């Protein structure tokens, strides 16, 4: 990564809130999955009324939930999403370097990184594909 690319900030390339799945903690699992399908990223950010990140729900969380919970789909679909969410997700601030964020994503084995401000308010999402494009200058 060249110096100029390494110096880029996460906030320059995040996907804004209108391009990612954002739901409330009381959103039904079924509705959350429909929202995730619309954005095709495999992740939903869960925020409270003030826009603060409460957790994330991913395709991987769905697989683990299906293997763990032995109840009918209709019962699962009626659950609030926060019941199945990762409540302390790895996050990054908008001023973090792109190099740091990509290293963090590699370390944690994740493709998406919620971007939050100093108060924990969700600003957007750093997705691996746009991050790689920025590094490559595409």
Short structural description:
With 138 residues, this protein is of the alpha+beta class.
Structure notes:
The protein is of the alpha+beta class and 138 residues long. It has one domain: CBS-domain (Roll), CATH 3.10.580.10. It is 36% helix and 20% strand. The protein has 6 helices and 6 strands. The chain has a 3-stranded antiparallel β-sheet. A 3-stranded mixed β-sheet has the order 2-3-4. A hairpin with a 5-residue loop joins strand 3 and strand 4. The longest helix has 11 residues. The protein starts with a helix and ends with a helix.
Low-confidence spans: pLDDT under 50, at least 5 residues? none
End-to-end gap: 13 Å
Shape: elongated
The mean pLDDT is 90
N-to-C series of helices and strands: HEEHEEHHHEEH
Strand order of the largest sheet: 1-6-5
How would you summarize the topology of this molecule?
Layout: H1 3-6, E1 15-16, E2 21-23, H2 29-39, E3 43-47, E4 53-58, H3 59-68, H4 73-77, H5 98-108, E5 112-116, E6 122-127, H6 128-136
Q: Which descriptors would you attach to this protein?
A:
three-stranded mixed beta sheet, alpha+beta, elongated, 138 residues, CBS-domain
């Amino acid at each position: 990564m060249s110096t100029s690319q390494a110096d880029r900030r996460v906030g320059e390339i995040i996907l804004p809130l209108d391009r990612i799945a954002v739901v409330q903690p009381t959103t039904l699992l079924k509705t959350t999955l429909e929202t995730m399908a619309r954005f095709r990223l495999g992740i939903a950010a869960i925020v409270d009324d003030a826009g603060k990140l409460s957790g994330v729900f991913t395709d991987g969380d769905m697989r683990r939930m299906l293997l763990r919970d032995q109840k009918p789909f209709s019962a699962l679909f009626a659950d609030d999403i926060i019941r199945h969410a990762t409540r302390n997700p790895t996050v990054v601030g908008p001023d973090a370097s792109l190099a740091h964020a990509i290293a963090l994503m590699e370390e944690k084995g994740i493709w998406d990184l919620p971007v939050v401000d100093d108060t924990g308010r969700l600003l957007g999402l750093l997705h691996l594909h746009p991050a790689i494009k920025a590094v490559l200058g595409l």
